[in-house]
């Protein structure tokens, strides 16, 4: 089978290659095709993969191209993880919001909307090429904002595109491990939300919901990264374990103050780190794999560090980084084609799961996956602030998709102005003006 990676020069591609090239991998990938528009990044990542392949007994064949149709032709799976404008654009996404006193984060709030406005047109065009060149391929989307992008791509590809994220399944597995059930079965937990905005609301062990016991046990709860980040008292008040990105909604002021006070944003850190990596790894005679390993370790250790309190409170533990989106992608592929049914949390169409939301809206819920496809299971009723937050953010997401595809500045302004993390429609207009100034191509696309 052939796996095509769109964004093949991306920093985290070696994780995907290692996962599918592992002799114990549950699905055999014979060829990995890397596609990217940046030949310099492709060269550096190819060097890393060449060293990784040398340690494998039967590594996948590697092909590298800047020709999209060549990369897609014959693909069984297409993995999409792109960043339009690179990390330099992420810096502008974050700084433009911060300069207006608004949360600056790449996927949450106005930064995520600006990212989506640039990304949705590209990803929809990509979906059309996939439909023409590789219509039978499964498309696994990790391009952020994953919920928005997956929803836009579904209009072209339907059920052949599935959005993935590693944060919700990591939360569920940490909770399960704390209760002695590290691999909960299908239907044994209730997780509902949108991408980067969701809650684990129940977790059955031996036929009983053990989440209340976990919330009541300070020792066990201290082992949950999300509880440390937001505080044990708050997750107990919620009666649920929140996705870590909800920190930006529940502690907006604190997050914004910490990010603003930090010497650099996360985007600035990654821009500088990745610039150094690609330069060093591409140098003649460089040990590209060693350079990548060092950069990756630093990146993982500092994940969301700009939002965490100083000291041990909220700190990320080494075990919190176990897994990752590459493992989610591998589990999904194996379930779909290798008779390895899996329990997962995925970005899928709502249908009637949350009846207050549009049927076509992409939400994030527990699913059973097998050779017949992806099967979301029912969720308990969503009420109160959870429903309110989901409804408001989903409305903003759909406005953003409309703005991107219709080229509408008015819809874009509405999206910024109505986002719950933007406190004024006047600020929303200023955000739009700021992003148009930062990204002239966006200004030309919107009217």
Could you list some keywords that capture this structure?
447 residues, alpha/beta, Rossmann fold, 6-stranded parallel β-sheet, 20 helices, metal-binding, manganese, metal ion binding, 6-phospho-beta-glucosidase, cobalt
Give an overview in words.
Among the domains are: 2-162, NAD(P)-binding Rossmann-like Domain (Rossmann fold); 253-307, no CATH class. It is 50% helix and 15% strand. It contains 20 helices and 13 strands. The strands form two sheets. Strands 7, 8, 9, 10, 11, 12 and 13 form a seven-stranded antiparallel β-sheet that branches. Strands 3-2-1-4-5-6 form a six-stranded parallel β-sheet. Strand 2 (31-35), helix 2 (39-54) and strand 3 (61-65) form a beta-alpha-beta unit. The model is unreliable at 312-322 (pLDDT under 50).
CATH fold label of the domain at 2-162: Rossmann fold
Quickly name the level 1 CATH class of the domain at 2-162.
Alpha Beta
Strand fraction: 5-15%
Tell me about the largest β-sheet: 7 strands, antiparallel
Please report the distance between the alpha carbons of the first and last residues: 44 Å
Tell me the radius of gyration: 21 Å
How would you classify the helix and strand content by structural class? alpha/beta
Instruction: Give the mean pLDDT.
Output: 93
Overall 3D form: globular
The percent of residues in helical segments reads 40-55%
CATH homolog superfamily of the domain at 2-162 = NAD(P)-binding Rossmann-like Domain
Count of helical segments?
Answer: 20
The CATH architecture of the domain at 2-162 comes to 3-Layer(aba) Sandwich
Give the strand tally.
13
């Amino acid at each position: 089978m052939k796996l095509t990676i769109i964004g093949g020069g991306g920093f985290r591609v070696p994780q995907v290659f290692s996962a599918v090239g592992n002799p114990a991998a549950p699905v055999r990938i014979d060829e990995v095709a890397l596609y990217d528009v940046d030949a310099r990044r492709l060269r550096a990542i190819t060097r890393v993969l060449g060293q990784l392949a040398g340690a494998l007994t039967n590594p996948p064949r590697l092909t590298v191209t800047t020709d999209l149709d060549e990369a897609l032709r014959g693909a069984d799976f297409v993995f999409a993880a792109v960043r339009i404008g690179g990390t330099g654009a992420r810096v502008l996404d974050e700084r433009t919001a911060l300069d207006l006193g608004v949360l600056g984060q790449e996927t949450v709030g106005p930064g995520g909307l600006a990212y989506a406005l640039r990304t949705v047109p590209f990803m929809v065009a990509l979906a059309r090429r996939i439909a023409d060149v590789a219509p039978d391929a499964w498309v696994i989307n990790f391009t952020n904002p994953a919920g928005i992008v997956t929803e836009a791509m579904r209009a072209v590809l339907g059920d052949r595109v599935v959005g993935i994220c590693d944060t919700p399944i990591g939360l569920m597995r940490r909770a399960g491990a704390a209760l002695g059930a590290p691999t909960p079965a299908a239907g044994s937990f209730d997780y509902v939300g949108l991408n980067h905005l969701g809650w684990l609301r129940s977790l059955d062990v031996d036929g009983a919901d053990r989440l209340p016991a976990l919330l009541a046990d300070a020792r066990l709860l201290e082992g949950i990264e999300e509880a440390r980040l937001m505080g044990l008292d708050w997750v107990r008040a919620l009666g649920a374990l929140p996705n870590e990105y909800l920190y930006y909604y529940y502690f907006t002021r604190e997050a914004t103050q910490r990010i603003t006070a930090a010497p650099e944003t996360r985007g600035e850190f990654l821009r500088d780190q990745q610039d150094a990596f690609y330069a060093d790894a591409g140098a003649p005679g460089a040990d590209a794999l060693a350079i990548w390993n060092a950069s990756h370790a630093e990146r993982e250790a500092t994940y969301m560090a700009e939002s965490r309190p100083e000291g041990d409170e909220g700190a990320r533990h080494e075990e919190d980084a176990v897994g990752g989106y590459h493992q989610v992608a591998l589990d999904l592929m194996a379930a779909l084609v290798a008779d390895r049914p899996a329990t997962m949390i995925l970005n899928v169409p709502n249908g009637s799961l949350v009846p207050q939301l549009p049927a076509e809206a992409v939400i994030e819920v527990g699913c059973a996956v097998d050779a017949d496809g992806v099967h979301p299971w029912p969720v308990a009723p969503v009420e109160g602030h959870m429903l309110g937050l989901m409804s408001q953010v989903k409305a903003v997401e759909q406005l953003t998709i409309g703005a991107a595809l219709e080229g509408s500045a008015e819809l874009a302004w509405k999206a910024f102005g109505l986002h719950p993390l933007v406190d004024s429609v006047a600020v929303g207009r200023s955000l739009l003006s700021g992003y148009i100034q930062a990204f002239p191509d966006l200004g030309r696309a919107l009217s």
